[in-house]
User: Fold this.
Amino acid sequence: MEPRRHIVFVVFDGIKMLDVAGPAEVFAEANLFGAHYTLGYASPSGEAVVTSVGLRLPVDGAAADVAEADTVVVPGGDALVAQPVPAELTEAIRLLHPRARRLVSICTGSFALAGAGLLDGRRATTHWQHAPLLARAHPDVRVQPDALFVEDGDIVTSAGVSAGIDLALALVERDHGAGLARRVARNLVVFMQRPGGQSQFSAPLEVRPPRTPALRSVVDLVAAQPGLPHTADSLAARIGVSPRHLARMFTAELGTTPAKFVEQVRLDHAKALLDSGCGVAEAARAAGFGSSETMRRAFVARLGVSPSGYRARFATTRGGGGGDAAAQAR
Assistant:
């Protein structure tokens, strides 16, 4: 019989309830289909905690009393980005890290891992809204804001709230195969189609709709037809302004440049094409990159992985008709 995998959630006052409940439900549901997870809850002090929704959450004991675990999960909480991470929390995480096979953070839980010094030199992500703060506060962390979850060695960090469910499904897939993970996803009525490298949001949704009708028409055109040869000159000519004036409009309303916006839209489109089974060359042409090499450079710069690597690593989490092989992740 397969040995049980002990999952320990490190909780503290103010934790996001969904950061705990979402992944925990995935692991518990997996047990209905043959997985062997046990769930435990520990706080730095061993005392019960109060969650973000006001519910009191009892714990099994103090973090220091956990002798070993398969997976340690650190949820997020608003206080982790509003004030220094409590020393007792970072100490608990440092203590548990070598006792576990893998260490996982949900949403702003990455701030606790970074505060413990465990993300230095590693790639990591967090909720997109707080990614710039994580990068500023911890310059040794290679923050990847445009990913649902990122694995680097034995540490996995995930984006905001619901991304914790995506990550938990990926871990179940890693442990027990894609078939079991898909059954869990179906039972929980969630998608099994969001690989870790998928954008937390598409570029058109990331930015506020432009107030200026002319700029909105440019944004809508790029989003609808990323494969067209969009240049600063062509986009500016479309609305009758100079390229320099168009750049000022993008900066003022969207906080980016025309070139960066176009590249991000193309990147999102290319990822969607790769997820649907398109080849690298086909995705590069359809997304407007012009060549596979140009697309490769964009993928490596923004995601830290090549297009072919992206397809290979997330093949089983695209929701296709693949077999039950364990998921490949970063």
